């Protein structure tokens, strides 16, 4: 845990633009064993978690430059995975995120993060999809191209080697 703590502290200090008005000591005080276990999973799967303060709440979110490598090639949710007849991916974002203990970033949070810095310039990330879209078979994903954040849709059962997901935990 000491190694992870050192990585998190360095990332925090190197990226102060992500979390103005948040001190490392305040963050460190909230890092119990459960949170550290989740952060270790985020780190191990390529997420490079760091702190943001969003709508007055402090979160750890995946800030890898591209969608986390070890969280790609997944369909959106378990229903899509079950319904897929051919060439099923290994799992779904829903199941994978649940096993890690994270929640899927939603559209407003994704846009806020993109305003802080550019990421998903070559990849895309599944984002939380409203029931009104999911009930019709679709799911949302996002990326940044041409200096603009784009929100797209796909069938929830689709999966791509360049699409993963970003998660968060509230501190």
Describe this structure as you would to a colleague:
The chain is of the alpha+beta class and 171 residues long. The chain has one domain (2-170). 34% of the residues lie in helices and 24% in strands. It is built from 7 helices and 8 strands; from the N terminus they run H-H-H-E-E-H-H-E-H-E-H-E-E-E-E. It has helices at 2-14, 24-28, 33-44, 78-83, 93-100, 107-116, 131-134, and strands at residues 49-54, 57-62, 103-104, 124-127, 138-145, 148-155, 163-165, 167-170. A 4-stranded antiparallel β-sheet has the order 1-2-8-3, with helices on both faces. A 4-stranded mixed β-sheet has the order 6-5-4-7, with helices on one face. Strand 1 and strand 2 form a beta hairpin. The two termini are 17 Å apart.
Q: How many distinct helices?
A: 7
Number of strands: 8
* Total tally of structural domains: 1
First and last CA, distance: 17 Å
Tell me the fraction of residues in β-strands, as a range: 15-25%
Q: What Rg is obtained from the alpha carbons, in whole angstroms?
A: 16 Å
Mean pLDDT: 96
* Largest sheet: number of strands, sense, barrel closure: 4 strands, antiparallel
The helix content is 25-40%
Overall body shape: globular
Major sheet: order of its strands? 1-2-8-3
List unreliable stretches of 5+ residues.
none
Structural class determined from secondary elements: alpha+beta
Order of SSEs = HHHEEHHEHEHEEEE
């Amino acid at each position: 845990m000491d190694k992870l703590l050192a990585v998190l502290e360095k990332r925090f200090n190197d990226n102060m633009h992500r979390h103005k008005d948040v001190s490392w000591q305040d963050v460190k005080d909230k890092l119990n064993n459960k949170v550290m276990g989740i952060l270790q999973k985020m780190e191990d799967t390529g997420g490079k978690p760091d702190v943001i303060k969003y709508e007055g709440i402090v979160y750890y979110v995946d800030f890898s430059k591209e969608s986390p490598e070890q969280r790609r090639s997944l369909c959106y949710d378990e229903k899509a995975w079950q319904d897929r007849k051919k060439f099923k991916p290994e799992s779904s974002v829903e199941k994978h995120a649940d096993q890690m203990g994270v929640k899927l970033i939603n559209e407003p949070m994704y846009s806020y993060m993109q305003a802080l810095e550019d990421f998903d310039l070559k990849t895309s990330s599944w984002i939380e999809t409203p029931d009104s879209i999911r009930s019709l078979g679709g799911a949302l994903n996002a990326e940044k191209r041409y200096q603009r954040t784009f929100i797209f849709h796909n069938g929830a059962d689709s999966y791509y080697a360049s699409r993963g997901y970003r998660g968060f935990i509230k501190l």
